[in-house]
Every structure is written in structure tokens, then in C-alpha cells.
Amino acid sequence: LITMLKTENGETRFDFELLKSTVEEAVHFLDNVIDVNNYPLDRIAEMTRSTRKIGLGVMGFADALLALGIPYNSEEGVAFGERVMSFIQATGHNASRRLAKTRGAFPLFGESTLKDGEPIRNATVTTIAPTGTLSIIASCSSGVEPVFAFVYVRNVMDGTQMVEVNPMLMQKLHALGLDSEDLLKRVAAEGTIQHCLEIPEDVRRVFVCAHDITPEDHTRMQAAFQRHTDNAVSKTVNFPGSATRDDVRSVYLLAYQEGLKGVTIYRDGSRNGQ
Q1: Were 261 and a residue from 53, 58, 140, 232 both cysteine, which residue would form a disulfide, CB within 3.0 to 4.6 Å?
Q2: Which of 173, 171, 132 is closest to 154 using CA atoms?
Q3: Neighbouring residues of 48: CB distance < 8 A, sequence distance ≥ 6
Q4: How high does pLDDT run on average in the chain?
Q5: Is the pLDDT of residue 23 over 70?
Q6: Confidence band (pLDDT; 50, 70, 90) for 274?
Q7: What is the Cα–Cα distance from 54 to 120, expressed in whole angstroms?
Q8: What pLDDT score does 55 carry?
């Protein structure tokens, strides 16, 4: 989603026309993948092609919010997430319906819950996947997650440690003349910039990381995307190390009330080597 931004007259805006054409091409591409894919078993190939489910998703959402100056943990942030995903959902389904006119609906369409509607090529169109490794390759935020930490050390499987600095924060600090090594070390110690009072308040309000966001706000953002996603939404609800069982219980109940298909929580410090 970060690639959908346009800057005109010094103002950054989201390019929904580019998103529309990208979604349409992606649905066509993913439908082709079903036919050219090699399946380990004939039964798997048969089931996959009988429903033709695809899972178009996103990444770079948190980066887009940073560029637009919208806090992740705000009503505006949740509303923007819902606007983007509802647009992807509607555009993706329309593209799948157009494919059905030339290629036919998925074979089990007549036996599905969709049978009374307009024929559609794919039984499901959208999914929010984690995109963990993909987002590292693309150098953007993963899925619909907030930035986990703005400066941190990544532990790779062979024991290598890599210092990661969020490029958007670095750009902002450089513009403010605050990109000192001392400040970056302080951010790395906690991952967040909220304790760095020399950074302007309006910047700190926008540049929030996973642990600056309440579990309830994590859950509400997941719900915004789930309302416009066919399959499930991959999202972690981050808890501080001081979280209690009742805190966890309240989030599971909120997730149920919001209609989530699943919820994943992570309590800070609960894994060795974090």
C-alpha cells in the first residue's frame, strides 16, 4: 500500500485509481496461478480448482499511515483501513465476476452459498496474510500490522544480528535534524520514540509502534479489515508483559463481538530470545 501514495504540490495522498488497476491485475494473475500450479496430489488439485479460492491481501499499510500522517491507533486510522479494504474487496469481486463471464464461474458455484448471486470466478477473493518475509524483501511494514519497533536488532536463524532502523522515521528525524547516533541508541533500547521528548509531539503521535497501541486498538483495526475480507485476517494483538488473564479475556470477547474469525495475542517477554 505504501506504493499507492502520490505527492502533489507537496501533499501526500492515496492513489485509489492505481489501487484499482493493481487489484484487477492481481485477481487475473492469481486466477491463472490456480491453473498453472503443480499440486502434490490430484485430490488437492481437484479441490483447489473446484472452488478456485484466491487470497489477495496487502502489506505496507502502517507505512502508508505514517506517510499520510495518520496515527494507527486513532479513529481516522481505523476508518482509513476500512476504506482501503472495502475498496479492495469491491474491486476484487467485480474483477472476479468479469472473469466468470469469459472463463465461467468456479465449478461448485451452483452448490455454494453464492449461488443466488451473480456468477463469480473465485469462491473467495481476499485474505490478509502475515507477509513476514515478503515485507522484509519489499522493505515495508507487514500485512496490516503496525511497525513493531522503529529501531531494533533482528535475530536471524544462524545467530546473526542485524540492526534495523525504520527508514520513514530516519527520514523524518533527518529532516528535523534529530538523527543522532545517541537518539537512535535510545530508541533501540525500547523500540519506541514515545520517551524521546525532544521529538515533536505531533511526530510522536503518528509514529507509534506495536507496543504503543492498546490491545483494544489492535483488535479494532483487525475488525476494520475483517469486515471486508472473505477469509481471515492475520494480526497480532500485542500485550505488555504486565498483562493479566482478565486483560486477555477482554480482548477475546471484543474480538468475538467484532466478528473476527480468529485472534492471536503476544504477551511481551513471553518467549526466550525475543
Answers
A1: 232
A2: 132
A3: 34, 37, 39
A4: 94
A5: yes
A6: low
A7: 12
A8: 97
The count of other CB atoms within 10 Å of the CB of residue 266 is: 14
- Check: CB of residue 4 under 8 Å from CB of residue 66: no
- Residue 115 DSSP SS3: coil
**DSSP string over 27-54:** HHHHHHHHHHPPPSSHHHHHHHHHH---
Cell of 15: 492513489
Buried-state track 230-246, b at ≥16 Cβ within 10 A, e below 16: bbbbbbbbbbeeebeee
pLDDT at 158: 75
d(CA 242, CA 127): 32
Amino acid in position 194: Q
Helix residue ranges per DSSP H, 104-200: 132-138, 167-176, 181-190
Which pLDDT tens digit goes with each residue over 157-204? 777 777 778 999 999 999 999 988 889 888 988 889 999 999 999 999
* Number of other residues whose CB lies within 10 A of the CB of residue 140: 20
Collapse the DSSP code of 120 into the 3-class scheme (helix H, G, I; strand E, B; otherwise coil) and give the result: coil
Our CA angle for 274, 130, 154, nearest 5°, is: 30
14: nearest Cα among 73, 83, 75: 83
Cell of 203: 511526530
Q: Distance between terminal CA atoms of the chain?
A: 28
Question: For 56, which DSSP code?
Answer: B
* Rounded distance between C-alpha atoms, residue 5 and residue 13, angstroms: 6
Residue type at 115? Answer: K
Question: Rounded to an integer, what distance in angstroms lies between the CA atom of residue 11 and that of residue 22?
Answer: 23
